[in-house]
Amino acid sequence: MKKQHLHRFLSYLLAALLAAIMLWYHHIYVNWNPSLFPVAVALSVLVFLALAITVIWPGDGRPLKKCLLIFGWFAAFVGVQQGVGYLINNHLDKENVLAMRTVLLLLAVLVIALLIKPFRALDRKGKILTSGAALLLILTTAAATLWIELQPRPSGQALDMSKFELTWSDEFDGDSLDRTKWDGSYMDENGLKQWTEEGYAALGTEDIRDGMLHITVTWLEEGMNGGPAGWYGLGIDTRNTFRQKFGYFEMRCKLPKGQGMCAAFWMMPDAFGDTPEDGRTGAEIDIFENPYYWNTWPRRNSVSSAIHYGGYDGGLQSQGVARSYVHRPYDTFHTYGVEWNENEYIFYIDGVETGRSSFGGVCQNELWLLLSVGGGYSGWDGDIRKNKPGVITDWAVDYVRAYQYKELL
Question: Which spans in 92-178 are helix H?
Fold first, then answer.
């Protein structure tokens, strides 16, 4: 085989291999397996270096220019990807988002190819990376990102509400938070709970208006409820007012904008760490969490659902059940719920199943409801300190409801 043909073959092979590793990397990321992140990153770096070596290998005295051209391609691709995603997510309200992104992104990549013509420079004398391999690398990477990193929309079975009857709700129709239904979650006698060094939950950050609960998260220089200067959000629960075993639990809300907010709707038992090897005694059910606002599209517009048991002191066992793309969750209202029976948990968004699990054994004891938002800079949900000075974010909650199976009443 001639050197030119061998080089062309290696270029195609390495480009395809790099695209495959990118697919795998995004796949393990979406499926909550962070232990494999270093492996995926290392493989991607190795393949990229191999690709660069094949570019420089025949050599004509300009290896730096060739490497810069390849890096330029990646930079152009990432820029177009993020720009198109930002435009669609923030300024266009179309339902067929995936199709729009695909068409616009591929068109943008081809336009860039025509404008800057890197293929011609990269394919000189057939001694370096071929135009076909470069095109394969860019387009397959684009397809991988659009196909996998775009979180799956809820697409499972529809929720059947005919088997349930309402047992508890808060429609937030009054003038203030109904303290016969909600208490400050894990708060002291002043209505204060410290989450992080500068992050607090405090009663008084909530407001009832327009038939909704509005929870604000902001920096308070003077603090509140006896606390010092810091970021103040809220955590409330029904631990002392309402508990239920099995049924369907749902809230309707519009998510807050900002890093470190992590709005969450979850359920907790009294016995969480008594039997670390089993979740049947008690489990934490995260109906939804939203720690992704600090991410780029489309992960920013997604929520996750999870199950934990075994306590927080070393015995914690966890499973991420689902992470789903939600259409404009910071600007429009959506419902988030979980159906819980003796055999499994089934999670829903807008009445459509997103995932189900019996991880750890399904809890067989009563659970109580919690709402929490704000105060974090763990890295997982971003850094609340990076929000713009003076930012006030609002979590608007339309209702929280609990239903029981009619056959159990």
Answer: 97-116, 118-122, 131-144
In angstroms, rounded to a whole number, what is the distance separating the alpha carbons of residues 344 and 90?
A: 37
Which residues on neighbouring strands pair with residue 400, listed in sequence order? 170, 251
| pLDDT band for position 403 (cuts 50, 70, 90) | very high
What is the band of 312 on the pLDDT scale with cuts at 50, 70, 90?
A: confident
Q: Report residue 348 CA to chain centroid gap.
A: 15
At 120, the pLDDT band (50, 70, 90 cuts) reads: very low
Tens of pLDDT, residues 183-214 = 998 888 899 998 887 888 999 999 999 999 99
Place of tokens 């599209």: 297
Give me the half-sphere count of Cα atoms (radius 13 Å) on the Cβ side of residue 8: 12
Distance of CA 287 to the CA centre of its chain: 13
| DSSP assignment letter at 45 | H
- Cα separation, 21 vs 141, whole angstroms: 10
Neighbours of 395 (CB within 10 A): 28
Q: Say if CB 251 and CB 337 are below 8 A apart.
A: yes
CA distance 20 to 46: 13
Q: What angle do CA 319, 323, 328 make, to 5 degrees?
A: 155
Residue 375's pLDDT band (cuts 50, 70, 90): low
- Which among 236, 178, 243 has a CA at the least distance from the CA of 371? 236
Q: Where are the domains of the chain?
A: 3-149, 161-408
Residue 356 DSSP symbol? E
Which residue is listed with tokens 């006896």?
226
Domain 161-408 sits in CATH at 2.60.120.200
